[in-house]
Predict the structure.
Amino acid sequence: MTDPLKDFTNDDWKDLLEEDKPDFYSATDPTYEDKRRWVTVMSQVFLYEPEDTFWRVYWEIGNTEDQEPDFAPWYEQVEETFVTTTVYKRIA
């Protein structure tokens, strides 16, 4: 299995996050992972269709309008996991 993200340039990352990268499709919406004073960490899972593998990409966004973003995404390979959730509702 190859690592399809290892040679990505900044332009490749931007295309991926804008869903304009061939062979990659978003499997989830972007989610907030962590919020700190100066940055917020986001993540999103993408499907790499040629190998049917999933990759979670993390990136930081600045929390102030004057802050220059340091665009240095990191990633990990993940797999689909199905979880059953039990919820309770009122009977009466």
User: Anything to note?
Assistant: The first helix runs from residue 10 to 17. The beta strands are 24-26, 31-35, 39-48, 53-62, 74-78. The CA atoms of residues 40 and 61 lie 5 Å apart.
